[in-house]
Amino acid sequence: MHVIENAPLAPLTTLRLGGPAERLVTAATDEEVIAAVREADDAGTPLLIVGGGSNLVVADDGFPGTALRIATTGFRLDGPLLELAAGETWSDAVTRTVDAGLAGIECLAGIPGSAGATPIQNVGAYGQEVSSVLTEVVAWDRADRTVCTIPAGECGFAYRHSRFKADPGRFVVLRVRFRLQDAAGLSAPLGYAEVARLLGAEPGGRVPVAAARDAVLKLRTGKGMVLDPEDHDTWSAGSFFTNPVLDDAEFAAFLAAVARRLGPGVVPPSYPAGEGRTKTSAAWLIDRAGFTKGYGSGPARISGKHTLALTNRGHARTADLLTLAREVRDGVREAFGVTLVNEPVTVNVTL
Ligand SMILES: Cc1cc2nc3c(=O)[nH]c(=O)nc-3n(C[C@H](O)[C@H](O)[C@H](O)COP(=O)(O)OP(=O)(O)OC[C@H]3O[C@@H](n4cnc5c(N)ncnc54)[C@H](O)[C@@H]3O)c2cc1C
């Protein structure tokens, strides 16, 4: 176990923002993770679990407690069954499973961060979500002080949501298990029209699994959604806002607001999201409210490649990023009556 006092957290985040943690502990085995959590809990010290820091917005004041960085390793592939230690780099694991010809997570290529964080917000992209192939999560339960195995059916998965997100801090993920698909080297059915189009395939069709992965990486790179230290458009936490899911009354009010502001012929994107619920696009709302790509003149701006990513241009502070985020959220609410919710986890600060 490696311990540093008063350790800056900014270098551990993809936004490169945030002040120091009182204490930074790096744990390389499950036993070290559990020992560090127990120690913090016994002392009543606030605890922040840090994976790859790609979904964290940390206060400029930092974190008054122990930040525990999960650096465990372990990749085990047994036929289509995959077990990953929480500290494994997610995108590397995707590469290895695609190289093995397995399908199910190929469209989640290029997503930064650790395997252990993928169940937290049910990571998803380009028509796939981890919840569709995840079988169980092995975690340290801080309430019961025991290691538990939680089957997928008890993880409360929904769009960018889970039991772990609903009850933050209770479970420390140690391992994640998946059942991938062996489709003779073919991808899972393509669930995203843009990917299918790029591959010259029909939505729902299958292509060689590596081709699907490569198409996704190409699309992601064009949107600044693959990390590149040289490109400030990727100094982000990915999408800053989730796509709003509206009930029937809210959706009707939204359509009326769109007609008032943009004219009766304008139809916003909409997707069924369960009984009486409709999902619309946060990127569309932000763009149509006037916050276009590259918006902003300060050290924090909207990415030049993607309306949904708020970025650090190199010398921003968290306060700058949050000022921009509030401006966008409030502007969208004023224009369309829809309140956007942040996707990244805010630490010691609120939007
Ligand atoms: C350029 C870019 C593109 C992105 N694209 C996508 C995308 O397409 N789809 C998507 O869903 N997300 C995307 N993200 C967001 C992010 O990559 C994911 O949410 C990722 O799973 C976060 O992993 P992490 O290890 O970096 O978590 P962190 O940022 O370190 O932590 C995020 C949250 O998870 C908790 N946590 C982390 N590890 C554990 C653990 N082992 N046990 C318990 N809690 C834990 C943390 O305490 C925190 O609350 C993107 C981010 C960036 C920067």
TrEMBL record:
It catalyses: UDP-N-acetyl-alpha-D-muramate + NADP(+) = UDP-N-acetyl-3-O-(1-carboxyvinyl)-alpha-D-glucosamine + NADPH + H(+). Its main location: cytoplasm. Its cofactor is FAD. Its EC number is 1.3.1.98. Belongs to the MurB family. SUPFAM superfamilies: FAD-binding/transporter-associated domain-like, Uridine diphospho-N-Acetylenolpyruvylglucosamine reductase, MurB, C-terminal domain. GO terms for molecular function: UDP-N-acetylmuramate dehydrogenase activity. Cell wall formation. The active site is at 160, 239 (proton donor), 343. InterPro entries: FAD-bd_PCMH, FAD-bd_PCMH-like_sf, FAD-bd_PCMH_sub1, FAD-bd_PCMH_sub2, MurB, MurB_C, MurB_C_sf, Oxid_FAD_bind_N. This is UDP-N-acetylenolpyruvoylglucosamine reductase. It is found in: Cytoplasm. NCBIfam families: murB, PRK13903.1. Residues 17-183 form the FAD-binding PCMH-type domain. Keywords: Cell cycle, Cell division, Cell shape, Cell wall biogenesis/degradation, Cytoplasm, FAD, Flavoprotein, NADP, Oxidoreductase, Peptidoglycan synthesis. Pathway: Cell wall biogenesis; peptidoglycan biosynthesis.
